[in-house]
């Protein structure tokens, strides 16, 4: 049995550190700083950018953009970008989450994205996300955000016994998202007893101040945030599976995990950028800018201040270009036409139990390498030129590559690719590693495809400038 590749173990660590988009960005930020990337603020001027240096910035702490400027870069040169997303379908707590019925304390949640919600039943769940905290400092008050994650399982969405639903075997599970997706936190009787006899029960003042959430839940969150419950001003929390990500299968050939879509591509692109710029002279001959952009809110359409539909990408390209030459406003347009975007989002692997769901000549396999996604109706932004460039990099390194087209009688999903291609005007190829169980609470992919993705992305960063100089189209 083959040993697990270091890149695969690294991915598992990344997944286990990233239960939410906020945590994924925090982990990416930690890795970038360790690799010598300097943090920028969008609220400040970027006048001091230098060739050969590496930078990053975050937006809302759920989107992160990192870039390395080639030593030979001049304003107007291109950007070589990999774009992915940090969010995954999940259940998010409602603004008023306090639900009490039938002798239970429950937590009201809302669905985020197109999840396979039936997979969330009978799982050991917890909460994670960010909280806004009021802090007293130097005689005044300030407000900060903290990331929190309750480690132990505190929630569960129980299924109904088959004895009370005899039609489930013949008619299938029918989930009403409003009525049935309500996790149990505790029983009312135990909660009341704890408040009476427990020395650390929720304070009455906290309960009176915030009637929107169960005091018991606020106490658990406050403990993780190292604050008092009444210091919590607001939060963005979601349910998370407590089972860790793992290398699995009889031959240790799979990864079983939540959020592979799309943290797998986020990790692979981030690691490729870091490793392609870590050597002392790795940027000496680079004339472009190598960039990774990991966006929030792809699962719900990308229409937010930190989504791919926002000006975030264009703002970054404009500010970098302008920091090297602010006198020529046409240099950005020139740079965009010299740029290239790899839109990296996980792909649908052929399912052995549902073979008819794939078009006969386009059946991506696990271990088969990255998948180039095509759609004549521009649900994917790939064209012949962009597909060739990405495929050529694979051939140079003997990396496997696959193609995917959805059946004509099925609807096609989409990615950030068409959004950025149309919004920015940048050449784009849509690709992704193949996986099964997409949008389940527990997904799976192949370990070989993690290695293929990382190697392909790293080669793209290192070789695109030279390869693109040989591609003649608009001449």
TrEMBL record:
<protein>
    <recommendedName>
        <fullName>Aspartyl aminopeptidase</fullName>
    </recommendedName>
</protein>
<dbReference type="GO" id="GO:0046872">
    <property type="term" value="F:metal ion binding"/>
</dbReference>
<keyword id="KW-0031">Aminopeptidase</keyword>
<dbReference type="InterPro" id="IPR023358">
    <property type="entry name" value="Peptidase_M18_dom2"/>
</dbReference>
<keyword id="KW-0645">Protease</keyword>
<keyword id="KW-0479">Metal-binding</keyword>
<keyword id="KW-0862">Zinc</keyword>
<dbReference type="GO" id="GO:0004177">
    <property type="term" value="F:aminopeptidase activity"/>
</dbReference>
<keyword id="KW-0378">Hydrolase</keyword>
<comment type="similarity">
    <text>Belongs to the peptidase M18 family.</text>
</comment>
<dbReference type="InterPro" id="IPR001948">
    <property type="entry name" value="Peptidase_M18"/>
</dbReference>
<dbReference type="GO" id="GO:0008237">
    <property type="term" value="F:metallopeptidase activity"/>
</dbReference>
<dbReference type="GO" id="GO:0005737">
    <property type="term" value="C:cytoplasm"/>
</dbReference>
<dbReference type="Pfam" id="PF02127">
    <property type="entry name" value="Peptidase_M18"/>
</dbReference>
<keyword id="KW-0482">Metalloprotease</keyword>
<dbReference type="GO" id="GO:0006508">
    <property type="term" value="P:proteolysis"/>
</dbReference>
